[in-house]
Amino acid sequence: MKALLFHCKKWAVKFDSLANRPAGIKPESVNGKEEQKCEDCIVAFVTVEKGDDKEAASRGLADEIKKMCKEVGRKDAVVIPFAHLSNNIAESKFSLEILEEVVTLLKKSKLNVIRAHFGSNKSLLMDVPGHVGNARFREF
Amino acid sequence: MKALLFHCKKWAVKFDSLANRPAGIKPESVNGKEEQKCEDCIVAFVTVEKGDDKEAASRGLADEIKKMCKEVGRKDAVVIPFAHLSNNIAESKFSLEILEEVVTLLKKSKLNVIRAHFGSNKSLLMDVPGHVGNARFREF
Questions:
Q1: Which of A15, A47, A138, B138 has a 20 to 30 A CA-CA distance from B86?
Q2: How many whole angstroms separate alpha carbon B5 and alpha carbon B46?
Q3: How distant is the Cα of B55 from the closest Cα of chain A, in angstroms?
């Protein structure tokens, strides 16, 4: 798993169309995920890879998101499935399982979590404040 | 080299502070790069890695940026040094050489190019329209 984390003053996505790449992708239902946004939150772009350890990867990412939330004094997080951090992307079903496990772990820690739609072309707005540690790359 | 490319309706960065990570980083002068922005452009976040082939990587990335510019009918590009797509980051001097070579190749192809500051914490604004191919990951 590869993840790119940002502290965002503003973040928003809007559904445009279902993705048909990478080959074999199985988009989930768009219902309820047409438009999503948050302010002053930690946003994690996540690429689940073939061979990821579900338990270790989901726990590692959840811990990193919690740590970053604590550092900026916020309880709001976004988990956005993102196919663009690796060329070794896992199958859709497995990716969704891991992403949902991350969400479960964050909710157990009393964070408010938005999970963005899996399998679509979306518009993206990001407004990232300039400070040390505002962007981070992690591998799990 | 790893690169993340976006078509942006709006893109802007503002210098905040010089980076002291990763260890050994040598930031360049900020002069003239305090604040940079563009509209309707192709933005490439670029992580140069140890062992990259300067000629092949710079040409590969320049060709990809030119292709994406052509697809969206624009002649404006941004090359932004970005330490967050890999854990195998090249030395600063080598990274800058490759980034500058990409800029040179793009200018030869009559593109307008902004090259963002190397070695700083910056604010970042991105407004990406929702369409197929608005975000791409490439390895060179």
A1: A15
A2: 9
A3: 22
| Closest CA of chain B from A107, distance in Å | 27
Within 8 A by CB and 6+ apart from A135, the residues are A4, A5, A6, A128, B82, B84, B124
- Measured between CA atoms, how close is B127 to chain A, in angstroms? 5
pLDDT digits (tens, 9 = 90+) for A2-25: 999 999 999 999 999 999 988 899
Pick the residue from chain B with its C-alpha nearest to A18: B132
Query: What does pTM read for this prediction?
Result: 0.97
Q: For position B12, what pLDDT does the model report?
A: 98
Spatial contact of B41 and B11, defined as CB atoms under 8 Å apart = yes
Q: Which of B91, B82, B14 is nearest to B54 (CA)?
A: B91
What ipTM goes with this model? Answer: 0.95
Closest residue in chain A to residue B127, using alpha carbons only:
A125
10-residue mean pLDDT profile of chain B (140 residues): values are 98 97 93 97 98 98 98 97 97 98 98 98 98 97
Chain B hits for A71, CB-CB cut-off 8 Å, are none
A19: chain B residues, CB-CB within 8 Å: 132
Q: How far apart are CA A38 and CA B8, in angstroms?
A: 20
Catalogue all structural domains in chain B, each as residue range(s) with its CATH number.
Answer: 2-28+38-130 (3.50.80.10)
Chain B residues within 8 A of A127 when measuring between CB atoms: 123-125
Question: What letter does residue B105 receive in the DSSP assignment?
Answer: H
